[in-house]
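Help wanted!
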Amino acid sequence: MDIQQTSDTHIEISDVTLAYGDFLIQQNLNFSIRRGEVFVVMGGSGCGKTTVLRSIIGLKSPSKGKILIDGQSFWDAGEDQRNELKRSMGVLFQQGALWSSMTLAENIGLALQMYTDITAKDIREICSLKLALVGLAGFEDFYPNEISGGMRKRAGLARAMALDPDILCFDEPSAGLDPLSSKLLDDLILELRDSLGTTVIIVTHELASIFAIADNSVFLDPDTKTQLAIGNPKMLRDECDNFAVRNFLARGEARE
Amino acid sequence: MPVPKQPQSSKAPKVTQRTADENLVLTFTGDWLLAGDQAGGHNLDAILAEAHGKQRIVYESNELGSWDTGLITVLAGIQHFADSQQIDNDLTGLPEGAQGLLKLAFAVKEREGARRQITQPRLTETVGTAAIDMLTSGQELVEFMGELTLSFQRLIRRKATFQTSQVWLAIQEAGVEALPIVGLITFLIGMIFAFVGVMQLNNFGAGIYTADLVAVAMVREMAPIMTAILMAGRTGAAYAAQLGTMKVNEEIDALSTLGINTIDFLVLPRVIALTLMMPFLTMYASVMGILGGLVVAVSMLDVTVLQYVVQTDAAIGMNTLFGGLFKAIVYGALVALAGTQQGMACGDSAMAVGQATTKAVVMGIVLIVVSASILTVIYINLGI
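Answered by r_m:
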């Protein structure tokens, strides 16, 4: 497989603590994501995986620490700069989060219409292309409630790719998908990374996906509320010092 | 839900005890079913009292009939008791399925601190919490007004990001589509006013002044306030529900990850639309109210249509007209504010959307009535 992976750091999470009021989610998080790698944030239910992702995509400010994107501190940046950084990221939400009052083409075209000078006709063509990329050719004028959950997710991915982002973020991409659709989505993610060199961040606990696509990962623990391990998931499964991590990756069948 | 049929030969559930060496032997007989006789476990406390000082509890279930959760809950109670008294609970005499379910129920220990302490709050506490809640929601409203002001500033500097098509859509929803209901209600209110007027004024031969009564009441007070209340129930609620659902579906998050200001994009078009449409709706409502009055007056009094119209025309001055329209603008802005603020502050569940919608309507109506009082005082002092 041709992985266009370089060693330079794209995103750095430095000493980050996340909390809702007094309720601690995760603390002392330290990891970095290299450009062009598929990075998985994993851990049991309720460990704060999604919150970590929300802090990276700019929806939840950390109560301590810094998040550096291309060396620039996201939460210390001014509003305009922050919006600029946000636009370098595409996000696929758990249920797709398509704007229900707009057609699929309008969903994908909104960002282009807002931030580029491309004409309406060209935007329409770009939308068709992006939809075709995710296997939804011909669905331009459908509304989100007229298509299935799996299709909504793929359309969400097409929308996330609208501005050709440097970073693609996925919140539980395989949740609610059958094994085949889930596999197709994984393949699509790898294809995008290989052809465009996009950095991919995935929040998931789906082991099949994790082993199939992750280059690197961080394991979050709901009890100690901190990270337990960083590394390639296959290596973590076989060699990690921490039993909880090995056990998670071996589906509860690890030996002490 | 259909109640499961009782087996034909249903036998009453019963548990008996005897002591053997250091063991307490519990014998379960009959059918232990949720839908059946619940008397089986009633004497359990007395039976378990005999377990004190024993080493273990053992079971016999040879004559046990059918069973379901009805049996398991009783057994779980015994298990809790045995755990607390540190008595061995030997399940081997029970049917295999029951053993499995019990093991499953006790396999994962209760997480420390997982159980909620439910306490009945005292009256003072409830009143205090409600007061604090009201204060916070007031603060949130003011904060939201601040954000909206900044958004308007961006609009003037042409830096606000929103789609003009959304404004037109909102104008259609808050304008044309509201015409039938607003027309109907204000027409009827005009008729009611005219009835009252005709009955009272005609007593001393001043029946024609019904036209003045209806005209002034509608144009100055009733048309703005009734339209605003209708719009609070119709459009304010719709705003809260739309934005609340968008929040639940993460659609608002999806907008902000694109670097789009959600106040500009979602709130601004709606506030502009409703504030802009309210004066037009109010004018229309006034006309409908006056028409309602006209119908009643002409049919009940010896008054012609022309007389009624001339009398109405003389009754409405510029002050009355613009006083009413200004009120309409204020009410419209407040209704839109309440609806959008509640929608944006909505929680992330279906129930929260319902609450946001209710709050939007209540807050809208409260704001209308409060501002109506304030405006009336101001108008009186200004001599309008």
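OP: Thanks! One thing I noticed: Chain A has a mean pLDDT of 87.
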